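User: Can you recover a sequence for this backbone? Please restate the input before giving your answer.

Assistant: Of course. Working from this structure:
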């Protein structure tokens, strides 16, 4: 419930200010890290399902925020990157995303933030294992 509330808070701001859905922003955030990525890499990094990523990429390309090129080694795949217009928007959004994150974090002490991070990481790794996905770290800390 908390994750859904936080997601709705971000969604309301991104939709109102920038016309972006949460899946669109998540794709932009991953691509904003700099390097062009295959659609598969975006799916893996955002942990969203293929359909959500595909729809978000189509909408972002229609808005001229993302460019799509054919993957040089796989004719069925695409390489994605932020278009110049997407880079400008990304640079506008990041400070606001950090501000909203800080605003939410104000509800917690430093110790609670640290504990929450560790707890969420453990839950993420356990859920990945339950789904049969490989985890990079051992859980059980």
């Amino acid at each position: 419930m908390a994750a859904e509330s936080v997601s709705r808070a971000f969604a309301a701001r991104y939709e109102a200010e920038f016309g972006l859905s949460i899946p669109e922003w998540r794709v932009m955030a991953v691509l904003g890290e700099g390097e062009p990525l295959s659609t598969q890499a975006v799916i893996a990094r955002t942990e969203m399902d293929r359909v959500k990523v595909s729809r978000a990429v189509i909408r972002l390309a229609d808005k001229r925020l993302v460019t799509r090129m054919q993957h040089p080694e796989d004719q069925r795949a695409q390489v994605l990157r932020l278009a110049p217009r997407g880079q400008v928007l990304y640079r506008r959004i990041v400070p606001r995303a950090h501000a909203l994150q800080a605003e939410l974090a104000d509800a917690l002490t430093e110790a609670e933030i640290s504990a929450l991070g560790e707890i969420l990481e453990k839950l993420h790794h356990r859920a990945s294992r339950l789904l049969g996905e490989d985890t990079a770290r051992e859980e059980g800390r």
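That completes the design. The first strand starts at residue 37 and ends at 38.
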